[in-house]
Amino acid sequence: MRAQVVLIKIAAIGDVALACRALSKFHENFEDVADFHWVIDQTLIPLARSLTKHLGIEAQINWIPIDGRSLLRGSLTEKVQAAAGLYRTIKETGPSQVVLLHRDWRYRVLTRLSGKADLIAIDRKASHELEIYDEAFRKLALLLDPPRRSKATSAMKPSVQSRRMGVLIGGAQNQKTSFLEKRWPEEHLIDFLKKVLAAGKYELVLFGGKEDTQTGRRITGLLPTSSSIKNLVGSLPLEKLPEELSKLELFVSIDSGLAHIASAVMTEASQKVFTLFGPTDPKTWRPIANGAAKAHLLYKSKACSPCYLNDGNFSRCKFTGSDFQNCMKDILPEEVFDLVRRETS
User: Fold this and answer.
1) Which residue from 93, 178, 202, 229 puts its CA 20 to 30 A from 69's CA?
2) What separation in angstroms does the CA of 270 have from each of 158, 159, 191?
3) DSSP letters of 32-86?
4) Judging by beta carbons within 10 Å of its beta carbon (0-12, 13-18, 19+), is residue 252 exposed, middle or buried?
5) What confidence tens digit (pLDDT) does each residue in 215-265 have?
6) Nearest 10 degrees: CA dihedral of 218, 222, 226, 229?
7) Alpha-carbon distance 171 to 174, whole Å?
């Protein structure tokens, strides 16, 4: 008899991408012994559905939409109503296990009150977030005690020959907060893009959300006129991200949800993800390469960094003037360009 497992990972984009990776690894190692009922923000279901389909596990998931905005950012009344809805969802599903990929104690209380299911919850270990999610699914496997699957060997895929470099020009925003200190200064970004265009080796594909549309137009307007720029900023639905990112040879990004999606779907030996870190800790949040791909990062640790302590509280940069956001300013365009050139030569 298949176990009924409720998975609670409501938001945000990067966390959902990591949850997809961990769930995919669970299915790689074990026979399909469970039906998953994923409680997730309704706006992120198209992305999660697309990503899990890309990873070959979408058929095992029943999607349970929830209003994440009300739960995370709503008024007290909205939060109570959303929490009550979550409680009813878990109780009506009647799971044998609940995998909770949130640290907020209130989720634990709701889960405990909603039934007698085994609760598998994550904590604040000083480990990479993906490793913490993987550990939760290992605990689930021990409870279910499924037979281990013998992995079939697959033929090596040919290397990507697209010569396309994706660059994120936005990011650092979700339903709960805007943490713009994570962004690379716009003047650095423009200088880097000019260097890439001047080298003439790659077609540039620019990524960003709808809130970054004006920024995308402004930046492209400051670049040399070129047919080698594809501007997808603000025009690409979330569910199309896995497909578009999987076609890239290189992806350059700040610490963002797209970096984690890219590291999930870019799996070939010729594919590489480059991520710039400042306020967040790469030990916890660096993208981890999948398959034969490679992941690289640039991080210049400062006395004040990382200032985000993985506690849900995004602090504003305490410096002003020339020292403002110095952890990202000190990552120079030529350094990023040289790293990309060195790792792709």
Assistant:
1) 93
2) 9, 6, 25
3) --EEEEEEEEGGGHHHHHHHHHHTT-GGGEEEEEE-HHHHHHS-HHHHHHHHHHH
4) buried
5) 999 999 999 987 789 999 999 999 999 999 999 999 999 999 999 999 999
6) -40
7) 8
> From residue 224, how far is each of 169, 202, 221 by CA, in Å?
17, 14, 8
Nearest to 216 by CA among 226, 231, 202: 231
**Strands 272-277 and 118-121, how do they pair?**
unpaired
Task: Report residue 32 as tokens.
Answer: 């399909």
Q: Is 95 helix (H, G, I), strand (E, B) or coil?
A: coil
Nearest to 269 by CA among 287, 243, 295: 295
Question: CA Rg, the chain, in Å?
Answer: 21
CB 258 within 8 A of CB 279: no
**Which H or E run contains 164?**
strand 164-168
pLDDT tens, residue by residue, 126-138: 789 999 999 999 9
| pTM for this predicted structure | 0.90
